[in-house]
């Protein structure tokens, strides 16, 4: 029995094929022509259809056609080139940005453009000092970890804030330090479907502190007076006010979630003059971040503060005692109270202002009690 002849399977090795592809176009053409001529000269003439073929099929098995190698897919070629560049042990880790990642390039370009505008002064600031670009890209990014990961704020009823036009958001105030205003600002900024911004009215003390003054202006806060509030509402802004003021912020821990007096109803008069809705807001969780068990009035007078808080950790632990407790927060925006149905002279009616002020206060207080019953724990 004659020895079987071993026929090579497939085409020439991949490395030789890659080397041939790297040659110039002229070399490819001449090599292809020479190969075609040699193949034509050495290949025997095909038998005619009437004559049976005496030679066995030149394949791996009887009656089978020879198989050609499958071309490499683009992903396989890219992976092989990466392995050749980095080596088997230097492959990039999973999740690492690949070369030419457009998202990283875009972020870098946006960051450089932001710094260039900051240096050249090519950015806009409104008449109140509000810097929208700085607030969106820097200040909100600094507050957001406290909002999402530390206090784990849950927002309800964000749809009650109108998508356009002015509105007055009225909220309770507590927590010894005014962190509740900042959390409410992030809640509107990050959750409102129309991307609205909350412009808070702050007390005089905020604009007397050196660094806090500048940051508050940049973040869109302005003085808590009727003139500034009316100018913001005329421009169609969402204005936030906390009528309790320092009375609510510095109340003892034993009076937590009991609303203090809402002043003389100046916010209602402002809303009536411009016909904007009043949106009650209730915040649960802020009362427990600094449990105020005492108030040193002597130190408060010396420092010019409305109160000097004494908590279980401050001032006993020094700066560490100023760290707030990681309570679980809930912010709920209630049903808006319309004011556009009243006549223009309604803003001068003290009885109407008193009734509307009491209505807003009672709605906030009722929502606070409801949220307190629903929550499982102060911290969870």
UniProtKB/TrEMBL annotation:
Annotated segments matching region Disordered: 1-103
Domain Phospholipid/glycerol acyltransferase: 167-286
Comp. bias intervals (Basic and acidic residues): 77-88
InterPro entries with a match to the protein in the record: Plipid/glycerol_acylTrfase (IPR002123)
A GO molecular function held by the record: acyltransferase activity
PANTHER family linked to this entry: MONOACYLGLYCEROL_DIACYLGLYCEROL O-ACYLTRANSFERASE, TRANSMEMBRANE PROTEIN 68
Protein name (Swiss-Prot/TrEMBL): Acyltransferase family protein
């Amino acid at each position: 029995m004659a020895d079987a002849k071993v026929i090579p399977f497939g085409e020439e090795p991949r490395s030789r094929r890659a080397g041939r592809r790297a040659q110039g176009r002229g070399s490819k053409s001449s090599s292809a022509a020479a190969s075609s001529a040699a193949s034509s000269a050495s290949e025997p003439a095909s038998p005619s259809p009437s004559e049976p073929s005496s030679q066995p099929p030149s394949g791996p098995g009887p009656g089978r056609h020879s198989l050609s190698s499958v071309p490499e897919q683009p992903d396989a070629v890219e992976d092989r080139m990466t392995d050749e560049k980095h080596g088997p042990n230097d492959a990039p880790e999973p999740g690492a940005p690949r070369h030419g990642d457009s998202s990283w390039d875009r972020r870098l370009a946006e960051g450089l453009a932001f710094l260039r505008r900051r240096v050249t002064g090519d950015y806009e600031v409104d008449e109140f000092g509000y810097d929208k670009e700085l607030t969106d890209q820097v200040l909100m990014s600094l507050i957001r970890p406290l909002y999402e990961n530390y206090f784990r704020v849950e927002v309800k009823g964000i749809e009650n804030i109108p998508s356009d036009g002015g509105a007055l958001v009225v909220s309770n105030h507590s927590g010894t330090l005014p962190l509740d205003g900042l959390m409410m600002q992030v809640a509107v900024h990050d959750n409102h479907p129309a991307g609205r911004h909350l412009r808070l009215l702050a007390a005089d003390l905020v604009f007397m502190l050196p660094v806090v003054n500048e940051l508050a202006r940049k973040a869109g806060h302005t003085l808590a007076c009727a003139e500034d509030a009316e100018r913001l509402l005329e421009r169609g802004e969402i204005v936030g006010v906390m009528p309790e003021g320092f009375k609510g912020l510095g109340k003892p821990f034993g009076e937590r979630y009991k609303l203090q007096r809402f002043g003389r109803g100046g916010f209602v008069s402002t809303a009536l003059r411009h016909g904007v809705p009043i949106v009650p807001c209730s915040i649960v969780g802020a009362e427990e971040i600094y449990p105020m068990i005492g108030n040193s009035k002597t130190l408060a007078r010396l420092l010019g503060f409305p109160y000097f808080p004494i908590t279980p950790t401050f001032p006993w632990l020094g700066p560490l005692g100023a760290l707030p407790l990681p309570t679980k927060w809930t912010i709920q925006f209630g049903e808006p109270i319309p004011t556009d149905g009243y006549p223009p002279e309604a803003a001068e009616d003290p009885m109407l202002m008193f009734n509307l002020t009491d209505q807003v206060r009672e709605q906030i207080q009722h929502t606070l009690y409801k949220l307190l019953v629903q929550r499982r724990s102060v911290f969870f």
